[in-house]
Structures are given as structure tokens and as C-alpha cells.
Specification:
Blueprint (H helix, E strand, L loop, with lengths): L1 H9 L4 H13 L1 E3 H8 L3 H13 L3 E4 L2 E4 L7 H7 L2 H13 L6 E4 L3 H9 L7 E4 L2 H7 L6 E4 L3 E3 L4 E3 L1 H7 L4 E7 L2 E3 L3 E4 L2 H9 L4 E7 L11 E4 L6 E4 L5 H9 L3 E4 L4
Parallel strand pairs: 4-5, 4-9, 5-6, 9-12, 12-14, 14-15
Antiparallel strand pairs: 1-3, 2-3, 7-8, 10-11, 11-13
């Protein structure tokens, strides 16, 4: 769990720093001056950001250049958190705006939901139900928050609990809002996951929440994954960085799913 808690700290970046990470991930190596031009900021600003990112171990600086750090030793969750980071952070902020002080919420494991946990830090008196140890740890520090963490078989990847014991625990609660992550959104099959255990957790809270919010960046649109988790009929709000079009957009409309589009810039 320690590695995942470090993720919560290391990736708490502002939007400009997140853009730096995305540019470097794509280009791998750039001169500092090139990076400043790409982001249309001063050299002083980019060097200040790079000092912070270097201190966190996210980039490597040498002789006027900056390199994307080889993160081949990172856990899969850490790599997922770097995918479309700016969009995920914007989605998380918008989801947090949907949550009021004193509300009861369920969050499942996933990179976007870890950003949601970060964005909820300013809320007070939340009742949080989750199967994610990092999310539980993060939100337990909030003023007046009560956090309930499911037990069960712990997955090394993201320190999340799955299995019958976790599901039985989660089904004891009735929350106002369930926030569910997605690996894919398929027009025919709905919200999809890459693992059966994740889909089982998502399904377990249906009927135990007054509303269901799904956060998904546009890379999930039209992606068909291994397991169908939740049908669009059970989703109340989709928060995304682009408006879904084509068959996916048509299906969301047909099931009266409200769509909130955020600007990741």
C-alpha cells in the first residue's frame, strides 16, 4: 500500500505540470527551451516545474534537456494514472463538485477515482465506502469524515479488496452517490472492465445508491473490454472530457444518461 500512497502524493500536480508530463511521455526527450515553447511559458516557469517534477522522480534533467523517466518498474496503477492525466484530473474535479459536505459516497478502485479522492479533500463530514486502501487512507484525513474499507483478498497492483467478503461488506451500505470507474464504454454492452472482480464490485452497489456517476476520459469511448460491468440504464451521470458521438452517444441518450463535459485545459 505504501507505493500507492506515494502515487497520491507524487501525482498531485497542477494542470501545467500535468501537460509537461503528457508532452514528455509522447516525445521522450526534449530541450528545456523546446518544452517551454511547446507549453508557451517562460524558461523560468518551466525550470521551476521541472525542478519539482525531478524531485518527485518523474523526469530526468541533464545538460539543458529533460527526459521522460523510464518507469518500467512502476506498478500498473501508477502507469494508468499517467495516462490522460490532465483529463482525469479535470473529470475528478467535476465529480467532486457533485458531492456536498455530509454526503455518503462509494468509490471503487481506479486511477480516475484516486484523482477524485484527491479532489474531495476539501469536503467535510463525508461517509466514504470503498474497496480501495489508498482511497480510504486519503479520505480518512478529511475533517469529520467516516471511512469504511471493505476487506477481502487484496490485489497487489492497487491495494484494493475483492471477492465475496468485500462484496458482502459493501452491500451493507446505502449511499447517496456511487462513483464508478470504467475501463471502456461500449455502445452495446455499457460500462466495461478488464477484470471480473472489478465488474462484480461495480454491480454490487447498484440498488445501494441513489445515483451512479461514471468518470471516463475519451480514450475509453468505444473500447470493448473483457467484462460488461454496468448497463447504461443504471448510470445517471457520465463525466467526460469529450461528448460521446455516434452509436455510443445515441445509446447514452436513449438511456437518459446526463453527460457533463469538462475542459481539461
Amino acid at each position: 500500500m505504501a507505493n500507492e500512497l506515494e502515487v497520491l502524493s507524487d501525482l498531485r500536480l497542477n494542470s501545467r505540470q500535468a501537460r509537461i508530463m503528457e508532452v514528455l511521455r509522447r516525445e521522450q526527450l526534449l530541450a528545456v527551451t523546446q518544452l517551454a515553447e511547446a507549453l508557451d511559458v517562460s524558461g523560468e516557469t518551466i525550470r521551476r516545474d521541472l525542478r519539482l517534477l525531478s524531485a518527485k522522480g518523474l523526469v530526468e534533467k541533464s545538460h539543458g534537456n529533460v527526459r521522460w523517466r523510464d518507469r518500467s518498474d512502476d506498478q500498473p496503477l501508477q502507469r494508468r494514472m499517467l495516462d490522460n492525466m490532465t483529463a482525469k484530473q479535470a473529470i475528478a474535479l467535476a465529480i467532486a463538485d457533485e458531492i456536498s459536505d455530509g454526503e455518503s459516497v462509494f468509490l471503487d478502485t481506479g486511477s480516475t477515482n484516486i484523482y477524485v479522492a484527491q479532489a474531495l479533500k476539501g469536503r467535510h463530514n463525508l461517509t466514504v465506502v470503498t474497496n480501495s486502501a489508498p482511497i480510504a487512507q486519503h479520505l480518512s484525513t478529511g475533517e469529520g469524515n467516516r471511512v469504511y474499507l471493505a476487506g477481502g483478498e487484496l490485489r497487489a497492483d492497487d491495494s484494493a479488496a475483492f471477492g465475496p467478503a468485500a462484496i458482502a461488506f459493501l452491500q451493507q451500505f446505502m449511499v447517496k452517490t456511487a462513483i464508478i470507474s470504467a475501463s471502456g464504454l461500449d455502445a452495446n454492452l455499457g460500462v466495461m472492465d478488464n477484470h471480473l472482480c472489478e465488474a462484480e464490485v461495480s454491480r454490487s452497489v447498484l440498488g445501494h445508491a441513489e445515483r451512479v456517476i461514471v468518470g471516463a476520459d475519451h480514450s475509453k469511448f468505444g473500447r470493448r473490454c473483457l467484462v460488461a460491468a454496468v448497463g447504461f440504464a443504471d448510470v445517471d451521470l457520465l463525466v467526460a472530457d469529450q461528448k460521446p458521438a455516434g452509436p455510443l452517444g445515441d445509446e447514452l441518450d436513449r438511456h437518459d444518461v446526463e453527460i457533463l463535459v469538462v475542459d481539461p485545459a
